[in-house]
Amino acid sequence: MTSTGATSVIGTALVIGATGTTGSRTAAHLAAAGHAVKAASRKASPVAGADPVRFDWYGPDTHAAALDGVDRVYVIPPVGDPDPAAVVLPFLRRARAAGVGRAVLLSASAIPEGGPAVGLVHQALPGIFDEWAVLRPSWFMQNFTGEHVHAAGIRTDGIIRTATGNGRVGFVDAEDIAAVAAHALTDVHAPNTDLVLTGPEALSYDDIATVITEATGRPVTHRPLSYEEMRDRLAALMPEEFAAMLADMDRAIAQGAEDRVTDSVQRVTGRPAGSFRGFVERELC
């Protein structure tokens, strides 16, 4: 699929998770292009250029107001829920009945259609909407900034801890994910497929540490852990089931599951995906 750059005339786009990493950026892209946006979050927090609305996945009483006047929706499933389909699918069916014609779902490169968690939502989406897309980004470059455990490790002791060994990942900038999301929501023709989103190169965590060190002048190293060590470390921060799933993803990276790059960002947006070094120079220097 190649983007034509043309956008359709839309009513209002609902962006769920509009204060989060990709949601905030997607809302900003849409607003900058002149589209009406409803920015959904649990506290209806203000978002520049958008109409804030309260939304809670586990509070169905918030769903009708969020969907009022909306004709397409960016769907970020509830974070940390091992069975998001239980709440997301009823909402999507309600959205379709309310007149929403297009849905763009945020999934992950590691989760195939019909796979665990959001993979079940991915599988069901084409049966609910005629116009749809599933974004399957690789690991976020933003994992090394903000509140992510890797960012905390860099700030605390200059160490990134993973169970990925020498495995490589096509890290992608959340800005590029949001640009793709905005196109998928507003281009005349919906993608009607899933899009694996990566940056321009696959990097190991040793490579990541080297780039951060070179760009910032602050020494950063990668410390490999065993699967069990990683699982237990994460379990101190989150539910055990979710910690085990994340540790499983690290193990899959070690086995080469994420060692790939795609041209999806270029094809959809018309510009190349940003590099990790460029990201570090923009965000950490």
Characterization of this structure:
The chain is an alpha/beta fold and 285 residues long. The protein is 40% helix and 16% strand. It contains eleven helices and eleven strands. The strands form three sheets. Strands 3-2-1-4-5-6-9 form a seven-stranded parallel sheet, with helices on both faces. Strand 4 (72-75), helix 3 (85-97) and strand 5 form a beta-alpha-beta unit. Helix 8 packs antiparallel against helix 9. The chain starts with 11 loop residues before the first strand and ends with a helix.
Attribute tags:
single chain; 285 residues; alpha/beta; seven-stranded parallel β-sheet; two-stranded parallel ribbon; 11 helices; 11 strands; globular
Query: Number of helical runs?
Result: 11
The best one-word shape is globular
Low-confidence segments, given as residue ranges, are none
Instruction: Tell me the radius of gyration.
Output: 19 Å
The tally of beta strands, per DSSP, is 11
Secondary structure: helix percent? 25-40%
The largest sheet is:
7 strands, parallel
Whole-number mean pLDDT: 95
Query: Reading side by side through the largest sheet, how are the strands ordered?
Result: 3-2-1-4-5-6-9
End-to-end span in angstroms? 36 Å
SSE arrangement, N to C: EHEEHEHEHEHEEHEEHEHHHH
The structural class is: alpha/beta
In terms of DSSP E residues, the strand content is 15-25%
